[in-house]
């Protein structure tokens, strides 16, 4: 920030107007260009920071909304999600130079790419948070924080499978839901075996205050319950074995 | 002792894989996984309500987000009440089931009782 006390009052207005003008100009920049500005932080720190603020304002509501929906129950509601979002944007600033700019992308495509990137940053942050509780100062959240998490925005289920899974999840205990939603943060699409790595299971077990074996048992039990309900709804059959 | 044959293990593994894939896809569509690809972002944007969720105070000002502490320094430990867990386990052993709604009520009642014991008012206290 400029040290305004050194600026004469009649000059301060000029500075403010110049700053507003710069903001207006940046507001018209594409995400790709804003990221370029941010990547030049060493040479142009003020411009980089200004670009970051524009970038932040452009995407913060989106990132907060999707993170609240996805991670609210896992990180203690709005406060935890707020931390993740703020951290994600700071990391975007730090790693702006690593974002692969697609010169052929239009503004729409660029927005989608940037938001996907921010989502991946937030996802890694949450994985780190869920694993690192034993290594960082922690605070206990009473169960009321779970119930105070805002209701998920009603995404209209578009298939029987989605409805069935949602309904099935609601029959699980809170712990089972928590274990599933936590462990599924390590799901990798297309991978044949989705077993949690031992080190991840150990860390998550500590976060959830149980043992790794108990964590796996809770998960297995929850999956069996859901499988039974999905079969009742005729949502799953032996698709993979049918493909062999 | 019955041992699972390899073919049976494979069938179980295949079944579990299908269930896991189904759950994962459903979780994504329900918004329980943050969008990480362009297609997922597009889908999420279509699902978000037209009225914004409303940013918390800490995020409204970019400067506040800029200077906030590291998210990892506020790790959340999600505690469960051992007495309630024991009750749930006993119910399960006896072949009874306690639905999620009842479980939530049990936890809320326990918390209210603890607050009354702590400060005598029963009023909500700040989260530590």
Write a structural description.
Chain A has 244 residues and is mainly alpha-helical. Chain A has helices at 9-27, 31-39, 45-75, 78-94, 107-131, 144-147, 160-169, 174-183, 198-207, 212-232, 239-243, and one strand spanning 138-141. The longest helix of chain A is centred in the N-terminal third of the chain and has 31 residues, at 45-75. Chain A is elongated, with a radius of gyration of 23 Å. Chain B is mainly alpha-helical and 128 residues long. Helices cover 59% and strands 3% of the residues of chain B. Chain B has helices at 6-29, 38-47, 57-60, 62-67, 82-93, 100-119; one strand at residues 75-78. The longest helix of chain B has 24 residues, at 6-29. Mean pLDDT of chain B is 71; it is low at 118-128. The interface between A and B is large, with 102 and 70 residues.
Q: Could you name the ranges of chain A where pLDDT drops below 50 across 5 or more consecutive residues?
A: 1-16, 134-155, 239-244
Largest sheet of chain B: none
Helix-strand string of chain A: HHHHHEHHHHHH
Note the overall shape of chain A. Answer: elongated
Structural class of chain B: mainly alpha
Task: Summarize the biggest pleated sheet of chain A.
Answer: none
**Given the helix and strand composition of chain A, which structural class is it?**
mainly alpha
- Give the helix proportion of chain A (percent range): 55-70%
Mean of residue pLDDT values of chain A: 79
Strand content of chain B: under 5%
How many individual β-strands of chain B? 1
Portion in beta strands of chain A: under 5%
Unreliable runs of chain B, pLDDT <50, ≥5 residues? 118-128
Distance linking N and C termini of chain A: 64 Å
Q: How many helix segments of chain A?
A: 11
Radius of gyration of chain A: 23 Å
Number of discrete helical segments of chain B? 6
**Distance, first to last CA of chain B:** 51 Å
Please provide the ordered H/E string of secondary-structure elements of chain B: HHHHEHH
Please give the number of β-strands of chain A. Answer: 1
Largest interface, counted by CB within 8 Å of the partner chain's CB: A-B, 102 and 70 residues
């Amino acid at each position: 920030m400029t040290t305004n006390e050194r600026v004469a009052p009649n000059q301060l207005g000029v500075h403010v107007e110049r700053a507003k003008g710069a903001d207006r100009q940046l507001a018209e920049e594409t995400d790709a260009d804003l990221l370029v500005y941010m990547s030049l932080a060493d040479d142009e720190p003020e411009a980089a920071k200004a670009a970051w603020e524009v970038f932040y304002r452009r995407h913060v509501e989106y990132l907060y909304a999707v993170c609240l929906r996805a991670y609210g129950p896992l990180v203690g509601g709005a406060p935890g999600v707020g931390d993740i979002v703020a951290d994600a944007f700071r990391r975007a600033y730090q790693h702006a130079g690593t974002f692969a700019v697609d010169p052929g992308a239009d503004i729409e495509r660029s927005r989608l790419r940037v938001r996907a990137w921010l989502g991946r940053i937030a996802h890694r942050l949450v994985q780190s948070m869920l694993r690192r509780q034993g290594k960082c100062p922690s605070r206990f959240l009473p169960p009321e924080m779970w119930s105070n998490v805002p209701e998920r925005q009603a995404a209209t289920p578009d298939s029987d499978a989605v409805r069935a899974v949602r309904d099935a999840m609601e029959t699980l205990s809170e712990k089972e839901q928590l274990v599933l939603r936590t462990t599924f943060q390590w799901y990798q699409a297309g991978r044949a075996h989705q077993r949690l790595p031992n080190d991840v299971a150990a860390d998550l077990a500590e976060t959830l205050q149980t043992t790794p074996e108990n964590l796996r048992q809770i998960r297995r039990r929850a999956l069996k319950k859901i499988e039974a309900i999905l079969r009742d709804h005729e949502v799953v059959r032996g698709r993979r074995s049918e493909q062999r | 002792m019955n041992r699972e044959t390899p073919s049976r293990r494979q069938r179980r593994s295949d079944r579990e894989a299908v269930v896991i894939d189904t759950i994962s896809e459903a979780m994504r569509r329900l918004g329980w996984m943050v969008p990480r690809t362009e297609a997922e972002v597009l889908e999420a944007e279509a699902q978000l309500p037209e009225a914004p969720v409303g940013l918390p105070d800490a995020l409204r000002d970019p400067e506040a987000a800029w200077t906030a502490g590291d998210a990892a320094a506020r790790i959340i430990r999600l505690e469960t009440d051992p007495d309630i867990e024991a009750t749930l386990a006993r119910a399960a052993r006896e072949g009874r089931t306690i639905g999620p709604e009842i479980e939530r009520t049990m936890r809320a009642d326990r918390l209210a009782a603890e607050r009354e014991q702590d400060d005598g008012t029963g009023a909500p206290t700040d989260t530590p």
